[in-house]
Write a structure and sequence with these properties.
homodimer; alpha/beta; Aspartate Aminotransferase, domain 1; Aspartate Aminotransferase, domain 2; 12 strands; about 40% helix; about 15% strand
Chain lengths: ~375, ~375
């Protein structure tokens, strides 16, 4: 059976080019980039070159980039850094964060810090809700760029303006961290990069290798793990040079093709939405074009439980998801983002996520919409 | 110029087989192992299968294995877990630990915990020194299995016996963590595995990929980073399945060939030591066979500064090191392990590390000993 994979937001297939760069780099650089003999210095120079090119690509200083084992670790560096504050702090966190950030709420509370969770009507945090949540002791605001389940783009520019104004008024310092795992290389960086104090990125969402990602932070942070001094002392462990090289290759490709890929993906998504609109039982949850990534579509078939529909499509060779992979085994966790977005329980019960990459074709989309329509028609008819 | 690489303890060349397993797995499993659709479940089953086979290989329960981004992170999981204790604890740490553990001393002290650092005469911690360091509030003992610079095998069996006896006498609980990065797959596991409560392993020291490793812990620990629930909730982040599969492949190969590889490496090392013995100016620092890994040799040419000799050999295409890669850019840090082992400043100033893998040949060793002898003869003659 041919398989159609629409769960790129969970993980994307590694590209041939990325795998080739990985292999070449692994064979070329056998030494540790921290070693001082020639092979070590060559590996160190290669790493330093990639960091500089990454920095140019992003338009940020190279010394503000820290390679990690992935988006989760990049998020953890910032969360743990604030968790270590001795004085209790207040943090503001969107209710639709990825589990790698959302799971910290309990930890912050346990340590005596206070947390305000913001609802996200329709999948978007409003600048007004941020404004009313800020307090003089607010030290950290955690709001992702593109939501991983609905694809909604958060208004970080306006949110940042609210935060900066509050900082000036109250002479306090607030760190705005944006999880950019679903944004980097997928939407224009003007949506997130200039507004956040730090962002996290994951390679395997961009057809890069697993196990690598980065934190960009323009502000200093306290590393939770001291060690061998790698990554300017902020993230210890032998640098994963082959994966970092492949990560850069993917990032470069994504950024070089960004506009064309965006236009193509948007037309694919529009086409999908148009096809699904023929069935009133299928509700699109993701807001229109200007407020969402074209690569992710949240929808719901209220009368059909998500898990049932996901499995029915799976049996036809079509992979979609019910939420983030991290939360997909737990119904309550899987529904959290839909609930926090204000969708009613009926919509949440039938909520699904479709996500794809730039290589998606019109045939893929036709197959997907046909499958969704036929199977929902069939199931709804059976249910009477 | 042909290059001879004798810095395997810093990083080893990835094997063709490991790279092949990495590539095949990356192409075969495009889905996230946490996803519940068929490709996700297949990836999850693959991961679970590898974990079981790893556990069988080690003779431990699969649920006590946690894949990490490497040895450093495995060490950090244990260190951070104890760092988070609210009540001040006492810990005992060998003075010859790898920087990924040694760097925690300051952090522990900053948080009000107390630390006893054990010297290691000749590169070996004595059970007696552990016995006299233990206190009723001792919660953690950090002693590596094979030292990364001298290759010395620590007497973990006797150390563990001392700790267990103390625990019984004082009705306290002490966690013995052993960094097994230079031991796993290289010396018989009876040296470390039955004696430690937890061990850390790194793939890239075994000709596996960078960016993966594992923590085995028979005792529960508090994870520093909550997140998406991967690795039984102990280590969040999308699992690096291709790297983990390659890591297992290397581990299996190392364990299958352990005895033959050991015998070969020992004969290579013996041959090297014998050759170097022709020059009284060259001092072997690593103790004899039964107390050291055959893959690492610490030596010193007291009158020639380490960095100078390392560079001179490097110019001949021979890569050796002055200590761990993590500390090789800092003279004081590079010398720490030699100093803690009780070698005098003259020996420390000229200290070097040679390390290799099972594929080392008699020709490689001949080239190495010839280079060391010729260059030290020349330099010493020039110095008069």
């Amino acid at each position: 059976m041919e398989r159609y994979y629409f769960d790129w937001a969970a993980s994307s297939p590694i590209s041939t080019e990325a795998l080739q760069v990985y292999t070449e780099t692994a064979l070329q650089h056998i030494a540790n980039p921290s070693s001082v003999h020639s092979p070590g210095r060559a590996a160190g120079a290669a790493l330093s070159g990639i960091r500089s090119r990454f920095a140019s690509l992003m338009g940020v200083p190279a010394q503000q980039l820290f390679f990690t084992s992935g988006g989760t670790e990049a998020n953890a560096l910032i969360c743990n850094s604030f968790l270590m504050k001795k004085r209790p702090i207040h943090l503001v966190i969107s209710g639709i964060e990825h589990p790698s950030i959302f799971a910290y709420i309990q930890r912050f509370k346990q340590l005596g810090h206070s947390v305000t969770i913001l609802p996200a009507p329709g999948g978007r945090i409003t600048p007004e809700s941020v404004a009313s949540a800020l307090r003089p002791d607010t030290a950290l605001v955690l709001i992702m760029s593109v939501n991983n389940v609905l694809g909604t783009i958060q208004p970080l520019e306006q949110i940042s303006a609210v935060i900066r104004a509050y900082e000036q008024r109250h002479r306090c310092r607030i760190h705005l961290h944006a999880d950019a795992v679903q944004a980097f290389g997928k939407i224009d960086r003007s949506h997130y990069l200039p507004h956040a104090d730090s962002i996290s990125v994951s390679a395997h969402k961009l057809q890069g290798p697993r196990g690598t990602g980065l934190l960009y932070s323009r502000k200093p942070f306290l590393t939770p793990s001291p060690g061998g001094g790698q990554e300017s002392g902020m993230r210890p462990g032998t640098e994963n040079l082959p994966a970092i090289a492949a990560f850069y290759q993917c990032s470069l490709r994504c950024h070089s093709n960004l506009e064309a890929d965006l236009a193509h993906a948007q037309s694919m998504k529009d086409h999908l939405i148009m096809e699904l609109a023929s069935r009133p039982a299928i509700k699109v949850l993701t807001p229109p074009q200007e407020h969402a990534s074209p690569y992710i579509l949240g929808l719901s078939i209220p009368r059909i439980p998500s898990e049932v529909f996901m499995r029915v499509l799976d049996d036809r060779g079509v992979s979609i998801s019910t939420g983030s992979a991290c939360s997909s085994k737990n119904r309550k966790k899987a529904q959290r983002i839909f609930l926090q977005s204000g969708f009613d329980q009926r919509l949440c019960d039938g909520a699904l996520r479709i996500s794809f990459g730039p290589s998606v074709t019109a045939d893929d989309i036709a197959m997907l919409s046909r499958s969704v329509i036929e199977e929902s028609d069939r199931l709804l008819k059976e249910m009477g």
